[in-house]
C-alpha cells in the first residue's frame, strides 16, 4: 500500500512556516506548541468510559516515561513545531515520596535537555499538575490543609526550576481545583488570600532565580469544581489587581474555557489586551452540543480568524504562542491520527491568521470602528469627560441636546469579515 501524506491529511496545505505575513514569518506569528499531556499521556477516556488508547509508553514506570520522551520529540520533529508544553505529572511516574517524584522528574528533564540540544523544538511553558491526585481534591493553594499548600508550593518550585533550566518562555499556573463545591464548608476570604500569597511566592521565586519568562494564569470556569476563583479574564484581572499582582502576571486564555464561561474566545483575548494582561493561548474547541470542555482540535476557520484578529490588533504574541491543548477523539486510535490532528489544526490556524492579517491590512473594520467613536475625538468630548454632573446637566438643557441613535452596522461588518474567511 502506498502512503500518501496529502490524502491522509498529514501534509500542510496552508501552513508554510517561512511565509511572510505582515512582515513576519508565519511560524513566528503562530508559535505553535504541542501539549505533552493530551498528546502522550491521555489514555482516551471520557466521563463514562475508560482507556481506549494503547501506547507502548503507557506503563507508569520510568522506562515508560523515557520511551514517551523519545516518541514526543520524534513527533515534534515530524510536525516541525517550534514549541511544546508539559505538566510534571505527564512526564514522570509518581514516586513513593515527594523526593522520589522529584528524582523521576529531574531525570526526564535531563532527557528533554539533551533532546532539545539537537531539536528545533523549544519549551513554550511548563506547569505543575495540582489537580489530578486525590490530595488536591479540595484545591492546592486554596486547600484547607496547610500541608497540601506546602506540597503544592514545593512542586511548583521544582517545575519552575525545570522550566528555567530548559529555557522556557513562560510558566503557567492552572488552578484546576482552586474553587469550591459548597459555601457551607468554605472560607472564601481565607482561600483567596492563600491563593494570592501562593502567587506572590511564585513571582518572588521567578525574580530570585532570574527567570526572564512570563508568569501566566489560565482562567477556568465551573469545571471541575462548581465555582472556580479563576473563572474568566475579568475575574482573574480583578483578583490580580486586588492583590497588587497585575503588573507581574499575564493570562493564558483557552478557547474551550472561554465558551464555558459564556464568552467568545475573541472577547476574552480582546479584554485581556484592553487590560494589558494578554499572554498566550490554548487553542482548542468545545462540542457546542455537549456543554462541557471536550478539548477538540480547532476546525472552524471563521472562529479562529476572529481570535487571531484580536491577537494581531494587540500586537501579536510576545513570549506566548498557540498551544494545542486538544486531544484526539477516543475512537481515533492510530498514531497517524495524532499527526493528522495537529497538521489539520495548524492549517486551520494558518488560514485563520492569514485571513485576520488581510482584514487588518484592508483596514475597513478599523476605519468603521474609529468612525463610530469619532465624536469622542473633539474638544467638546474632552471637556465633557473632565466636567461634573451638574455642569453637564445644565449644558444639555441650555443647548437643547437631543441625541439620535445611529446604526451600529453589525450586519455590514459581519459581511466584511465573511469576505475573508
Automatic annotation (TrEMBL):
Q: How is the cofactor bound?
A: Binds 2 magnesium ions per subunit.
EC numbers on record: 5.3.1.5
Q: Where in the cell is it found?
A: Cytoplasm
Kindly indicate whether the keyword Cytoplasm belongs to this entry: yes
Cofactor(s) for this protein? Mg(2+)
Chief location category:
cytoplasm
**Domain of life the protein comes from:** Bacteria
InterPro entries named in the record: Xyl_isomerase-like_sf, Xylose_isom_bac, Xylose_isomerase
SUPFAM superfamilies for this protein = Xylose isomerase-like (SSF51658)
Question: Which reactions is this enzyme annotated as catalysing?
Answer: alpha-D-xylose = alpha-D-xylulofuranose
* Keywords, ordered alphabetically: Carbohydrate metabolism, Cytoplasm, Isomerase, Magnesium, Metal-binding, Xylose metabolism
GO molecular function terms listed in the Swiss-Prot or TrEMBL record: xylose isomerase activity
Q: Which annotated residues bind Mg(2+) 1?
A: 218, 254, 282, 325
- Active-site residues are 87, 90
Positions contributing to Mg(2+) 2 binding: 254, 257, 293, 295
Q: How does it assemble?
A: Homotetramer.
Similarity-based family = Belongs to the xylose isomerase family.
Q: What is this protein called?
A: Xylose isomerase
What is the species listed in this Swiss-Prot or TrEMBL entry?
Answer: Psychromarinibacter halotolerans
Q: Which gene encodes it?
A: xylA
Amino acid at each position: 500500500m502506498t502512503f500518501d501524506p496529502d490524502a491522509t491529511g498529514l501534509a500542510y496545505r496552508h501552513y508554510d512556516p517561512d511565509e511572510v505575513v505582515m512582515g513576519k514569518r508565519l511560524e513566528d506569528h503562530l508559535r505553535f506548541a504541542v501539549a505533552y499531556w493530551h498528546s502522550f499521556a491521555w489514555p482516551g477516556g471520557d466521563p463514562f468510559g475508560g482507556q481506549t488508547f494503547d501506547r507502548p509508553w503507557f506503563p507508569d514506570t520510568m522506562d515508560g516515561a523515557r520511551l514517551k520522551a523519545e516518541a514526543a520529540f520524534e513527533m515534534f520533529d515530524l510536525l516541525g513545531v517550534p514549541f511544546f508544553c508539559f505538566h510534571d505529572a505527564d512526564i514522570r511516574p509518581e514516586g513513593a515520596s515527594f523526593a522520589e517524584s522529584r528524582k523521576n522528574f529531574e531525570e526526564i528533564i535531563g532527557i528533554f535537555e539533551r533532546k532539545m540540544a539537537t531539536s528545533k523544538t523549544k519549551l513554550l511553558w511548563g506547569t505543575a499538575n495540582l489537580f489530578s491526585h486525590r490530595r488536591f481534591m479540595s484545591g492546592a493553594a486554596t486547600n484547607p490543609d496547610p500541608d497540601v499548600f506546602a506540597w503544592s508550593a514545593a512542586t511548583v518550585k521544582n517545575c519552575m526550576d525545570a522550566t528555567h533550566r530548559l529555557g522556557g518562555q513562560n510558566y503557567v499556573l492552572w488552578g484546576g481545583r482552586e474553587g469550591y463545591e459548597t459555601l457551607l464548608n468554605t472560607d472564601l476570604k481565607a482561600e483567596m488570600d492563600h491563593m494570592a500569597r501562593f502567587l506572590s511566592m511564585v513571582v518572588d521565586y521567578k525574580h530570585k532565580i532570574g527567570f526572564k519568562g512570563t508568569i501566566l494564569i489560565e482562567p477556568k470556569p465551573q469545571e471541575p469544581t462548581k465555582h472556580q476563583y479563576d473563572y474568566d479574564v475579568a475575574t482573574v484581572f480583578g483578583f490580580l489587581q486586588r492583590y497588587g499582582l497585575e503588573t507581574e502576571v499575564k493570562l493564558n486564555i483557552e478557547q474551550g474555557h472561554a465558551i464555558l464561561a459564556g464568552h467568545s474566545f475573541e472577547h476574552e483575548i480582546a479584554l485581556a489586551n484592553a487590560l494589558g494582561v494578554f499572554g498566550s493561548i490554548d487553542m482548542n474547541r468545545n462540542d457546542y452540543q455537549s456543554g462541557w470542555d471536550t478539548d477538540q482540535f480547532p476546525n472552524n476557520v471563521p472562529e479562529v480568524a476572529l481570535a487571531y484578529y484580536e491577537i494581531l490588533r494587540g500586537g501579536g504574541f510576545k513570549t506566548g504562542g498557540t498551544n494545542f491543548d486538544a486531544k484526539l477523539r477516543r475512537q481515533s486510535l492510530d498514531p497517524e491520527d495524532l499527526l493528522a490532528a495537529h497538521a489539520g489544526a495548524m492549517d486551520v490556524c494558518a488560514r485563520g491568521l492569514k485571513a485576520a492579517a488581510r482584514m487588518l491590512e484592508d483596514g475597513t473594520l478599523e476605519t468603521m470602528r474609529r468612525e463610530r467613536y469619532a465624536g469622542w475625538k473633539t474638544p467638546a468630548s474632552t471637556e465633557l469627560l473632565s466636567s461634573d454632573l451638574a455642569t453637564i446637566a445644565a449644558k444639555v438643557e441650555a443647548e437643547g441636546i437631543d441625541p439620535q441613535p445611529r446604526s451600529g452596522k453589525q450586519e455590514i461588518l459581519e459581511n466584511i469579515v465573511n469576505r475573508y474567511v
